[in-house]
Amino acid sequence: MGSIATSRPIAKHSFEDQNSLVLAGLRIAVGLVFLIFCEFKLVSTRFMLHGGFQAFINHFLEDGAYPFMVPVLRGFVLRFGTAFALLTTLGELGIATSLLLGIWTRVASIGAFVFMAALLFAADYPGTGSPLWQYVGLALRHLILAFCFLAFAVGDSERRLTIKSLTKLGRA
Length: 172
What we know:
Elements: H1 15-43, H2 46-49, H3 52-63, H4 70-77, H5 81-101, H6 105-123, H7 132-154, H8 163-171
Helix pairs in contact: 1-5, 1-7, 5-6, 6-7
């Protein structure tokens, strides 16, 4: 009787190679998400020039800003709304570009982590006296991305599937 084992050689990939490929795939996926986030802001002038950003901030103020963020949002962010709208749009585009191309990923990820923390505190407050699970539940939309950015900043996320590595393959 024949054995279950095949005679084909099994490709041996190191655990490190597999992890770097998975991290690169996650980096690219998050980059695509941020490209989608900034797309409507770039295509339409409503977000940057016609009050779209301010509408988001006002929604945060009505429905979810942590108390310590309220004066920051009202007194500073809304006061310079157009500048913050431009900064938000260009920041998201920079994050997307960095993650998709695999360049300056650590720097972009640190900035994106700070951005996610700011959004969490601006938009995810469940209210005084809420149980812990409601804090965590509301924060998930920003925490998951924050954890991804932390992994990109700490890990070697530029090891695989970067513009630099792919152009080297093309020359080989």
